[in-house]
Amino acid sequence: MMVWVTLLAGLALLPLLLKLLSPYFLQDLVYIWRAVGFGVRLELYKRRTPFYSILDRFLDFTRRNPHKPFIHFEGNTYSYSDVDRRSNKVANALRMVAGLKEGDTVAMFLGNEPCFAWVWLGLAKLGCTAALLNFNIRSRSLLHCFSCCGASVLIAAEDLRGAVEEILPALKEKGISVYLLSDECSTDGIQSISQAIQLASDEPLSLSLRSNLKARSTAFYIYTSGTTGLPKAAVVTQERVWAGSFVQGVSGVTAEDVFYINLPLYHSAGFMIGLIGCIERGNTAVLRRKFSASQFWDDCRKYDVTVMQYIGETMRYLCNTPKKDNDRDHKVKIAIGNGVRADVWKEFLKRFGNIYVRELYAATEGNIGFINYTTKVGVVGRVNVLHKKLFPYALIKFDIEKEEPVRTADGLCVPAAQGEAGLLVGRITKKSPFVGYAGNEQQTEKKRLRDVFVKGDIYFNSGDLLKIDHENFVYFQDRVGDTFRWKGENVATTEVADILSMVDCIEEANVYGVTVKGHEGRIGMAAVTLKEGNEFDCVDTCKVVANYLPVYARPRFIRIQESLELTGTFKMKKVKLVEEGFDPALIQDPLYFLDLNQKKYVSLTLDIYNSLLAGDIKL
User: Fold this and answer.
1) What CA–CA distance (Å, rounded) separates 24 from 22?
2) Superfamily assignment of 484-614 in CATH?
3) The pLDDT value given to residue 141
4) What are phi and psi of 576, to 5 degrees?
5) What is the C-alpha separation between 592 and 582, in angstroms, rounded?
6) Mean pLDDT, residues 519-540
7) Omega of the bond prior to 50 within 30 degrees of 0, cis?
8) 391: number of Cβ within 10 Å
9) What residue ranges do the domains of the chain occupy?
10) Which residue numbers delimit the AMP-dependent synthetase/ligase domain (predicted)?
11) What does the pLDDT look like over 328-341, one tens digit per residue?
């Protein structure tokens, strides 16, 4: 009897013991269980003939739950069957009017509205590949994005007609068919197609129209943000679509949840994790045209939102809204996204309640990613044996100055030490491929890193610096090219930006390195915006950077701007700022220089500028 009592007592104490010895054991176990489940499902889908795609998942769910709300948008609700029928109309109209067939590529130039879903589904039913154009780009960039994907057809929203007309002569020259989602259009070379869609049959399309679909077939193209030049069209395969859709499930999202999408659908976060993730889960999406901090929580309360998305600075924008008594009056329980600073993360939880933040690290074209499935603040993931076995990766030493991996005399890379920032690389294998960019083999090859640990091996170069601590937590450090070297030391722009954000007068900071004649490396500079009603505090800013940053990391130049230029996914653009440097004769914005003798920032005059170039002022 005593043996049984002892055994039961031991079992009762086991969870407590595990928590003390391995506080994240149960969270690791849940994540691994979910990941294995999704991995097995994907393998089964790949073995089916024909391949079972996310479109098939949508059709199966629609048959079982035709009346379930799929999309809420501006007071209207569209059920799964509504979207299915509308996509049938789109497919039948495009088949008849544009002659589209399996294998054709079609560029979608649409905003965040429900028609995005049924146009994309309609194209998928025809076996066509969609190129998801950023609706903010214009002129040269728009034409570049269209051209590199090899599309023969462009479908655009009516409110984007002006942008299409800008590049219409070039499209005509290439023989591109342009269709506008409007009832009429008088512009020569653009056909309105809304009436044809309305009159088209909503009957289902034959599976034979997409009979050649395989796991490695291209589903669509998603464009990189273009922070370092013109965007590149990342190839997203059918199996990659599934992998992206599983993020919701791995995060604990179920079919009963309501998912709030306010990120652009031309991006992988809003489209793959958001909209397609909802199809995989069979839940409901609340779609907004664009993010609004002032209306965010009202929307969540109105639609009983339980899962939200964030990216870049969106959480900080929410924290900067005026505090209200009902800040915690909502049903949001999970937040999925990336790019939130640790201090903002803590402030967000403190103000808006106990929300599970699933911070992730991934790249649209990459073959390795992480997700923070624990409650640890400030990390992007956690190392576990299963993950590394299935998707081999490593952190390697990186020379910031030369912008290349450190190599031994044998020409092989060197693993980064525990706690040391290193370049993340993912081994390219059959299970973790890197497909690359459409129409850009040069850029594709640049992302392949060869002879990493043995001669002949090939890894995907993420271009990002990460580190792993003694508890196996993964931290994002910086992007290669953003991190710069000054006085023989590496300066992480994200770290400096976080410190600058602590200054009372500063709203946002974009940190980068600029070259100075006669000096090696790049010296720190920051473009900042000021909080409303504030002036730049030269003394306090100096005091904060001096207290929290080593001398080499303190930004010597500050540029005050009305607003910081961002990409569609709130990533800060730096290329133009770096090129412009700190010349007061060329820059109209107020410029300041950190005078170490006066212990404050002073206005950067032409005299100071010339003294810097002449070497009369020591840097």
Assistant:
1) 6
2) ANL, C-terminal domain (3.30.300.30)
3) 77
4) -65, -40
5) 9
6) 91
7) yes
8) 16
9) 34-290, 383-479, 484-614
10) 62-372
11) 999 999 999 998 88
SS (H, E, C) 126-165: CCCEEEECCCCCCHHHHHHHHHHCCCCEEEEEHHHHHHHH
Res 233 pLDDT > 80: yes
In which order are the strands placed within the sheet that holds 190-192?
Answer: 190-192, 177-181, 153-157, 105-109, 129-132, 218-223, 233-237
The answer to whether the pTM exceeds 0.70 is yes
Q: Is the pLDDT at 605 greater than 60, yes or no?
A: yes
Pairing, β 307-311 against β 258-261:
parallel
Residue that has been written with the tokens 């976060």 in this structure: 269
CATH value of 34-290 in 3.40.47.10, 3.40.50.980, 2.60.120.830, 3.40.50.2000? 3.40.50.980
- Whether 500 contacts 511, CB under 8 Å: yes
CA distance 346 to 334: 15
The amino acid at residue 254 is T
- Give the residue carrying structure tokens 């009516």: 158
pLDDT digits (tens, 9 = 90+) for 186-211: 899 999 999 999 999 999 999 999 99
The percentage of residues in the chain with a pLDDT greater than 90, rounded to a whole number, is 73
What pLDDT is recorded for position 227? 46
**pLDDT above 80 for 518:** no
Q: Over the stretch 17-74, which tens digit does the pLDDT of each residue have?
A: 455 457 898 899 999 999 999 999 999 999 998 899 999 999 999 999 999 999 999 9
CATH placement of domain 383-479:
2.30.38.10
Q: What is the pLDDT of residues 429-479, one digit of tens each?
A: 988 999 999 988 988 999 999 999 999 999 999 999 999 999 999 999 877
For residue 483 the two structure tokens come to 């991190």
By residue count, the chain amounts to 619
Tokens 């010296």, residue located: 523
* Neighbour count for residue 135 (Cβ, 10 Å): 22
Cα 495 → chain centroid: 20
What is the predicted pLDDT for the residue at 230?
67
Whole-angstrom distance, CA of residue 173 vs CA of residue 133: 20
Pair of tokens at residue 587:
């820059």
Helices (H) and strands (E) in the chain, counts: 20, 30
Whole-angstrom distance, CA of residue 452 vs CA of residue 392: 12
Give the number of C-alpha atoms closer than 13 A to the C-alpha of residue 231, restricted to the C-beta side: 31
Distance CA 77, CA 55 (A): 21
Question: Alpha helix locations (H) across 48-134?
Answer: 54-64, 80-97, 115-125
Contact 534, 504 (CB under 8 A): yes
Residue 288 has pLDDT above 70, yes or no: yes
Residue that the structure tokens 């915690």 belong to: 328
In the sheet with 307-311, reading across from the earlier edge strand, the strands are 76-79, 69-73, 284-287, 258-261, 307-311, 334-338, 356-361, 370-371
